[in-house]
Every structure is written in C-alpha cells, then in structure tokens.
Design a protein that fits this description.
Blueprint (H helix, E strand, L loop, with lengths): L14 H14 L8 E2 L2 H8 L3 H14 L2 E4 L3 E4 L28 H8 L13 E2 L12 H14 L14 H15 L8 E4 L2 H12 L5 E6 L3 H9 L3 E8 L2 E2 L12 E6 L13 H14 L2 E5 L15 H4 L5 E6 L11 E4 L5 H12 L4 H12 L2 H28 L3 E4 L6 E6 L5 H10 L2 E2 L1 E2 L12 E5 L5 H16 L13
Helix pairs in contact: 1-3, 2-3, 5-12, 6-12, 7-8, 13-15
C-alpha cells in the first residue's frame, strides 16, 4: 500500500469513521486515482492492525456514497465518476453585462414595495428588553418535549414523508378541537380546524380568498401592526375603529354604513396592544352586525390562555350562530415562538376553499412537530404548562404594576393588566417617545412605543411593556430606573446599569 493512513485510538471518532475520512481524503486529493484498485478488506485490516469488520463498515459507507465500486472476480476500485464531481457546475464565461428591460412587478409586488417596512423584533444588546409576545422560554419543559420527539423519531418513518392530510395531522386537529371546546367554548369539529404555520399565514390565506384591491376591512385602532401590513399589501381599504376600556367600539361601524365592509379584524380576548377585553354585550352586538351585513369577522385569539382574576368570556366563534367568524389561534405564546404551528377554525362551507389554498401555498407543515404537539395536548401537558405559566406571569404582572404605581403614581396610566403577557402604559411626561426610548437605552433598557400600531391620530407617551421573559426583580429595578431618568433632573445617564 503506497498511501499513508493514520488512525488515532484516542480520538472520539470511531475507527471506521476515521478510516472513512482518510480514504475519502485520499480519493478526493488524487492519491487514489479513479479506476485504481484498492486493497481488500482483509489486506487493509491486516496492514493497519484493526478488525476486518471495521474496514468492511468503512467500505460499505464509501460504496453506498459512490466513491468505490466492486467488480466480481476482480476486486474493489475507486469510481471513475466521483459523487463530489456531480455537485460542481462549470461556470459559463461571461461575455459582458447585458442590458434588459426593468422587471415588472405584479400588483401585489407593487403594494409590497409601497407598504411601510415590515416590523422586526428589536434585539439590542441591552440587559432589559420590554419586547412583547415573548414567553419565558427557560420555563418550557424541554426534557418532556425531547422525550416525545425521541419517541416519534425512533418509532416509525411516517414523519419523513409527505403529509396525507390536506388540513393537517388529524390527531392534532382532533386534540385542538377538544382543547378549544374546553378552554374557549369554541364550537367546532376536527374537520373545521386547518393547521397553519402561525397567525401570519392564516391572515394571508384569508386575504387571498376574500380580498380584492380596494375592498374594505375594518380593524382596531390601535391594533396589531403585522395584520395591518398584510391587509395593506392586498390593496385593501382600511377603516380604523376606536378601542376603549370595553374593547372594539362596535357602534362606530355605523359611521361606515355606505361602505361594503368585507372583513372586521378584532382581538377580543386581549386587545392588542391596549389589553382591553371586548365585553359580552359588544360581542353579541358585533355578531348581530355581521349577520345583518354579511361581513366576516376575523377573531385573533392570540394569548387568550392568560387571564388573571376573572373567568374568560367565551370566544366570539362560540357565540356565533351564523358562520360569521374565522377563528385564529397559535401556540407561539403558550409554548415557544419557533414552533410554527397555529390553527384556523373555519365555517364548514369554507373548508374546501381554504384547504386547497393552503395545499398550494406550502403543502404541509413538518409532521414530526404536529405529532409531538398532539401528544403534548392529549396527555394533559399543555394545560398543566399553561396553569404553571399563568401563575408565574401573574406574579410578574403584579410586580410590574406595583412598581409602576410606586414609582410613577398618577404619572402613569396602566391599561389592560388583567390578561396576556404585556400591558400598555401611558406615561405622562413632557418628553417625546423617541426621547424616552433614547434615555432608556442609555441605561440598558429597551422600550417599545405603541405609536406604530395606530392607523389614525394618537397621543405621545404610550408604551408596550412585555413582561413574560423578565423576572420580578428585573421588572421592579427597571421601572425604578425609568422613573428616575424621567423625573430626576439631577440624574446623569449611566451606561447599562446593573440589573439582577
């Protein structure tokens, strides 16, 4: 053998893997040329002082990947066509830059270009971040989730294949249907549940099925910015409806009686961002209006699991008797954001259209996560986790509210503190939102103004305080710091004050 192979018995890599890497390197480096015969497994094992089984395992791997081939009666040879060669394309020589007419965008593409920038969750290098919508990820039962994942990874290979169910994994849809019936009084069967990869996809499907350019959508003001951007990119005409302490002001819909309203988008269980809860009389009033006008209601129930002190009001969908509600839910807030599994509960008459639209847009979500989530729900883990997190978030909410009351007093008005994992606060100061954000950043605190969530005129000084991922001590210390920097004229900025 005229090529050197070095194996290390102390290496964490098993011998057969080391031998594989050495032989592959020799082949690709030209020390073993295409068509050359290589030693038999017996010969190579003897020369290296290792078992023949180890060499056989290595040869099998090289054979399966196309580096070597066996010829009956002649031996084993390096392949004349190596697999790595098939992965490399030969560049075509450039003949100089060619001019062409500008690319013409579709109507949708032009709306995208004209729409304001898509918001991104700020990730500044700061100790305290009041970003909203982030759960306490360190409290997630990761060992349990890993156990469920391992079960399906090892039990069968179904999760590697295409999904057979156009609506999503049926056991998961059945589990979601039962869960929604228990927790939100939603009235649905499994075949009305369409699995989507989150609220954004659900809204995008709704837009494509119902909205043409210049069609009219009513939405809360202030409201969920990402939803508004999706509506704008479809060329819809947006009509803002005010929000007060009882939620969406339904009577204001009468101001647009001359408009043909197609959709109304609401977050009734915990209005975003004010936190108001749509009262039962207004829910019934909105459903009556939809039945009379033929409009559809999009009910985004994004974090309804977290209510503190009061029993939840049934979802609009559960009160609906005229198939007027499209109900959207997600697991991003109750489990973790990268679990891209949400659901859309549909009237039976719309199932076929939505199923076809979903299938053409992305065929299906990863099956493995759907299988695990179905077991997570069916075995009671989801509701146990929610109970645990509701208690944790309630303590953090109370710490935040107490700190605001102590350090701000009547200089802060707290909105929507009875649900969710954020509150909206009106700070009564002479400073602009930009100045408050700048001052907070000097002290290592990231604050988020509510201004971008308004479609119409709005006041300065409204901020969203997400508290899901912050400890009680962090919440109390940071609110104290914000109060000092706003009201203590003697206080000089300190770069990134230490927080617990």
């Amino acid at each position: 053998m005229d090529f050197a192979i070095t194996l290390d018995s102390n290496s964490p890599l098993p011998l057969h893997q080391q031998l594989y890497e050495e032989l592959r390197y020799c082949i690709l480096g030209g020390r073993l040329l295409p068509g050359r015969r290589i030693p038999s497994t017996r010969q190579l094992a003897k020369s290296l002082g290792i078992s023949r089984t180890t060499v056989t395992q290595t040869y099998d791997q090289l054979l399966s990947e196309g580096y070597i081939e066996t010829v009956v009666g002649s031996g084993t040879f390096v392949c004349t066509q190596l697999p790595d060669d098939l992965l490399r394309s030969t560049p075509i020589p450039s003949t100089g830059k060619m001019t062409r007419p500008p690319v013409k965008l579709s109507q949708y593409g032009n709306y995208l270009i004209k729409t304001e920038d898509v918001p991104r969750i700020p990730e500044p290098e700061m100790p305290i971040n009041f970003r909203y919508g982030r759960p306490a990820l360190d409290e997630f039962p990761i060992k349990l989730w890993r156990k469920l994942l391992s079960h399906y990874c090892c039990s069968d290979l179904q999760w590697l294949d295409y999904s057979r169910d156009i609506l999503g994994y049926k056991p998961l849809r059945e589990a979601i249907s039962r869960y929604l019936s228990r927790s939100r009084a939603v009235n649905c069967e499994a075949d009305q549940v369409l699995i989507v990869n989150g609220t954004q996809q659900a809204l995008d499907l709704i837009m494509r099925l119902f909205i043409e350019p210049d069609d009219v959508i009513c939405l809360e003001d202030p409201g969920y910015l990402s939803a508004r951007l999706i509506f704008q990119t479809q060329g819809a005409k947006l009509l803002p409806i005010a929000v007060d302490e009882s939620g969406f002001v339904v009577k204001d819909l009468a101001r647009y009686s001359n408009e043909q309203i197609r959709l109304v988008y609401v977050t009734p269980s915990h209005q975003f961002p004010t936190g108001a809860i749509l009262s039962l009389p207004r829910r019934l009033e909105l459903l009556t209006w939809a039945r009379q006008t033929g409009a559809l209601i999009i009910e985004d129930d994004y974090d309804s699991e977290y209510r503190y002190g009061d029993r939840p009001i049934p979802a609009l969908q559960g009160l609906d008797r005229s198939d007027s509600v499209l109900y959207i839910g997600t697991f991003s807030k109750v489990l973790f954001p990268s679990l891209r599994i949400g659901y859309l509960v549909l009237p039976k008459s719309l199932i076929s259209a939505f199923a076809r639209g979903k299938w053409l847009s992305d065929r299906h979500l990863p099956l493995l996560e759907q299988q695990v989530l179905a077991d997570f729900i069916n075995e009671g883990h989801l509701e146990r986790h929610i109970r645990k997190m509701r208690s944790l978030y309630d303590k953090r909410r109370q710490a935040l509210v107490k700190a605001l009351n102590v350090h701000f007093g009547d200089k802060a008005t707290i909105l929507g503190e009875k649900a969710g994992i954020h509150v909206m606060v009106r700070l009564h100061t002479p400073f602009t939102d930009q100045e408050i954000i700048r001052r907070a950043a000097l002290h290592g605190i990231s604050m988020m103004s509510a201004a971008p969530h308004y479609l119409g005129p709005h006041s300065q000084g409204e901020f969203i305080f997400g508290y899901g991922e912050l400890t009680e001590q962090q919440l109390m210390d940071s609110i104290s710091m914000i109060a000092q920097m706003l009201f203590d004229s003697q206080m000089l900025p300190q770069k990134y004050t230490n927080f617990h």
